[in-house]
Structure formats: C-alpha cells, structure tokens
Amino acid sequence: MVKIAEENHDLIETVVGFARTLRTAGVLAGTDRLQAMLVALRELNVLDGRDAYWAGRLTLCASPDDVARYDVAFAAYFRDERPRIAAVGQPGGVLKLIGVQPAADQSLQPGEALQTNPMASRASEQELLRQKDFATLTTAERNEVRRMLARLDPVGPTRRSVRLRPAARGVLDARRTVRAMLRHGGECDELLTRRHSRRPRRIVMLIDVSGSMEPYADAHLRFAHVVCRRRPAVEIFTIGTRLTRVTRAMQARDPDIAMREVAAAVPDWSGGTRLGELVKAFLDRWGQRGAARGAVVVVASDGWERGDASLLGAQMERLRRLAHTVVWVSPHAGHDGFAPTTAGLVAVLPHVDALVAGHSVAAFAEVARHLEQQGVSAARPGGRRRAGGMIVGLAEEDKVHA
User: Fold this and answer.
1) How many CB atoms lie within 10 A of CB 93?
2) Who is most buried in 148, 160, 231, 396, counting CB within 10 A?
3) What does each C-alpha distance from 373 to 201, 202, 326, 369, 385 come to in angstroms?
4) What does pTM read for this prediction?
5) Is pLDDT above 90 for 102?
6) Average pLDDT over residues 48-61
C-alpha cells in the first residue's frame, strides 16, 4: 500500500501494521474498520498520500476524539516522525502517542510517495516473520527465527501435588491450629488452613527427524530446547528409524551447542520413518516404567508412516492410557486446506487430545499456550482429559522417574 515500492510490502500487511500503531495511540481500529479501509484504498491511488490519509481517517476513526490521535499516528507511521510515548490518565492505562500535529503545509501532495517509519517497518517485518513457514525461510530469516524461538517462555502444565501446604484458604489444618492454641494458652486466635500446592507436570517430547521433516526438525528441536531449559522434568527423544534420548544434550545453555550435540547423538537424521515401532520402543523402555505416566506427551511429526499404520494406532492408544494428555504437532496443520488424511494421522487421531500446527514461530507460541492449559482435568475417568482428536491452531539428561 502506502509503503514505498522498493520495499515491496503487501497492502494488507501495511494496513495491519498501521492499525496496530493506532491501537497503541488509543484508537479502537477493529477488523471491520480495517476491512473498510482496504476496500476504500482499492478504489483510490494507494501511492497518493492524500487519498491514503482520507481513506484511513474516514474508516478507522470512530469519533472526533480519534482524529487528533489518527493525525499523529499517520505522520509517525508513514512520514518517519518519532512521537513521544506517554501514559495518560485514561481507563485501563491506555498509552497515547504525543507529538506535534502536522501543519497544513506539511500535508502530502497528490502522487507523493509516503516514507516508511523504520521502527514500524521493523515491527511489521517481525510479525510477518512470526507467521512465515519454516520451509520457506532464507538463511538470514532462519537465523532471526532461531532468535525468536529462543525468546519464547513456555510456562507449561501443572498438576496438583499430593502434599498439603499451609495456605490462607483451604481445608482446616487441625494440627497447626491446636499447636497455635497451645502456644497462646489455649486461646484459639484463628483457624489455620492448608491446601494442595501445584507442581510442574512432566513433559515428554518425541521429535520426528526423518527426511520428510527435514525443513522443520531444527525448529522443533529448538522449541524442545526452550521447553527443556525453562521447565523441570522434561524428557526429549528423536524418532526416525530409531529412538534416541537427547535429554542430556538439550541441557546445554546455548541452543547452537545443544543442536550440535543432538546432531552428534542422532544417527538417523533425515532417514526413514518407523513411527509405530519407535512409539512401541519408547513405551517398552521408558513410558511404561514411568516417563509417560501422568505426563503431557508431545509428538512432533507429519504422520508419514512407512510401516504398519495399525501398529502406530495401537501404540498411540496404549500411550493414551498412560499419559495425562497427548498432543500431536504437525507442520502441515497450519496450511490452508489441510486435512489429516495420511495413514499415520488417520490412525493416531482417535488417540490424541489435540492436533496443532507447528510450522511457524506464531504456531509454536500457540503450542506453548496450549501446553500451559493442560492442567488437572476431570473430564474423563482417572482424571485425564479427552478431547476426541480436536484440531487446534488453524485460522505454535534428567533421570526418568520409575
């Protein structure tokens, strides 16, 4: 749109970035008004500053109070003026852009190309990169995406501890109450209570590193590294033609060092896929002994199974009986027109709680939020939740406890 032609920015992305600037300034530019501005711009000359200004003012401003904010935001976003940001005493602590309103002689003449605010352009590029598919990244974009993945801060799921802790609210703690009474000569000043505390729930991640997952495996492993660094009780395995435990390698603080150690430890990188056999191997050696019991199990794979799909389905059913929640992360689930039609996905879908996208930084941010929600649930017998193969996100060496 209004971005200069050399930058080759898309019209929709530019308008979306401008709408974010308006919301920061306190103008409630909703999606309906955004759509109206796009319709208006398609009928006008988008390189004409006056046309662009009036198209936005007539569609994005909801009241006379919005006009002054709109003028300042328009000048800051498209004419490289740097306004000061100051908090104003409005409900909700709204931030307002404070600056000098453009004078009449500063208005752009017809045909004049609008200049881009570098900070706004950078923010727009970051947002575009968050949504971009890992398989389409350039080398420079891939390096930036790796830094963005390292900045994710997944909280992760929690579970109710068996132990009771002193708390301001909860059930009566008779022992503490009696001891307090004895200290005060038999007088009961207050009734002390206790309640169950929350503890991190174990996370187990199975990352597919086969040939079909080559464009996405590095990003999936880096996300697993972030989870491992931020959370206790995390177990990470790679699956391809064999099962490899890489939890110890993931303990390295630097993600690049961790990836090098993982590459050295995994002998079947970019090989074939034997999902059913490897899920069985995991359950026989690790899962049945305690790693998967009550855990949130994340399987990152596209579901391409070269072996027997019925074996994969049977082993996923077995895994589902042990785990608290099973989440399947597919890099293709975020693509338009996606349908779980591969033999592997058809076999596993009845035994997973959620099928989520895993093709971009934004998708992984959604995965992190989804994992955070996997707390204690009483939706099915045994306290484990059952979602019936829900598809989510379409529009993100510790010892094994025996």
Assistant:
1) 8
2) 396
3) 11, 14, 13, 7, 11
4) 0.62
5) no
6) 84
